[in-house]
Design brief:
- With about 150 residues, this protein is of the alpha+beta class.
- It has 2 domains: about 35 residues; about 100 residues, Sandwich (Immunoglobulin-like), CATH 2.60.40.730.
- About 25% of the residues lie in helices and about 35% in strands.
- It contains 2 helices and 7 strands; from the N terminus they run ααβββββββ.
- A 4-stranded antiparallel sheet has the order 4-3-6-7, with no helix packed on it.
- The radius of gyration is 23 Å and the shape is elongated.
- Bound molecules: fe (ii) ion.
- The site of fe (ii) ion has 7 residues, from α2.
Length: about 150
């Protein structure tokens, strides 16, 4: 009887460990098989970025003070942890929009040392600045900021 109980107990423990291993493997498979190209990706919580969000969400730099119809310079970097530029993994382009109008598109090859741009802009009134970029492996990413000129 004692042997039976021990055997049943070990079977139960084995089942639990096997179940946990399968769940862990399933989560890994989901992350690996995530289709980054099925949608436009955005950082879910800017204060708590995932590793992929840190590498891909465009980082928008604008002056704290923007005057109506006066030129200012936008800087964009991809991302907070600068994305690699290698022959197998690189940022293909960065686009800048005011509202829904394209202002600038910069193409990159893997030979570019870093995925960043500086663009002159001016705005005539409150608008949304949208920046998009595409990674060859991780799809299109977007960041937005509202601008209210003084
Ligand atoms: Fe990437």
């Amino acid at each position: 009887m004692g042997v039976f109980r021990r055997r049943e107990f070990l079977k139960g423990v084995g089942t639990v460990f096997l179940g946990q291993a399968l769940i862990a493997k399933s989560v890994q498979a989901q992350e690996k098989e995530q289709d980054w190209f099925k949608t436009i990706n955005r950082a879910a919580d800017p204060d708590n970025l995932t590793a992929t969000e840190k590498k891909h969400a465009p980082v928008i730099g604008i002056p704290g003070y923007v005057k109506t119809n006066q030129v200012f310079f936008l800087t964009v970097e991809v991302g907070r942890t600068l994305h690699v530029m290698t022959p197998n993994h690189w940022i293909m382009w960065i686009e800048v929009y005011l509202g829904n109008s394209l202002v600038s598109r910069t193409e990159f090859s893997p030979l570019s040392p870093q995925p960043s741009v500086t663009i002159p802009l001016s705005v005539g009134g409150p608008t949304t600045l949208k920046v998009m970029e595409q990674c060859n492996l991780h799809g299109i990413w977007e960041s937005k900021v509202n601008i209210t000129p003084m």
